[in-house]
Amino acid sequence: MSVAAVAATVLDDALRARPHEPLGLRFQKRLAAGNLAAFMTASSDDLRWPGTTGKVSPGLKLMHRFVDRIFAAATRSPELYLRLIEVLHLMRPSRDLFHPSVLRRALLAR
User: Fold this and answer.
1) CB–CB of 61/89 below 8 Å?
2) What does the domain layout of the chain look like in residue ranges?
3) Is the distance from CB of 18 to CB of 70 less than 8 angstroms?
4) How far is CA 54 from CA 36, 58, 66, in A?
5) What HEC string does the chain produce?
6) Domain of life, per the record (predicted)?
7) Of 9, 79, 74, 68, residue with least CA distance to 37
8) Which terminus of the chain is more exposed, N or C, with fewer CB under 10 A?
9) Residue 85: its pLDDT value, please?
10) Which among 88, 91, 85 is positioned nearest to 45, based on CA atoms?
C-alpha cells in the first residue's frame, strides 16, 4: 500500500463517519496520523548515512541495530520476511515488528 492509498482510506473513513460535516482539521489530523509510519520509516533511515543532517539519538541507533537484526532474521524465516514486507508496504502497523515472536527471532539472529 502506498502513502496515497493510506490517504484515500483515511479520507473514505472520514467521509463515512460524518458524511454531512466539513472535513477540515479533523481530516488533516487523521491524515497526519496515517502518514506517520511512512514518514518515520523514511526519515529515520536517512539518518544512517553520512552527510545527512539531523540528530541521531542513542535510541535511534538502537532501533537501527534492531531493524538490521530483523532483516537478517527475515532471510531465514519466511514468516518473519512476510511480516517485515507487510510493515514496509504499510499493510501492517510498525508495532507488529515488536511482537514477541519477532523480537525472539531478531534477537537470536546472527
Assistant:
1) no
2) 1-52, 57-110
3) no
4) 18, 13, 20
5) CCHHHHHHHHHHHHHHHCCCCCCHHHHHHHHHHHHHHHHHHHHHHHCCCCCCCCCCCHHHHHHHHHHHHHHHHHCCCHHHHHHHHHHHCCCCCHHHHHCHHHHHHHHHCC
6) Bacteria
7) 9
8) C
9) 94
10) 88
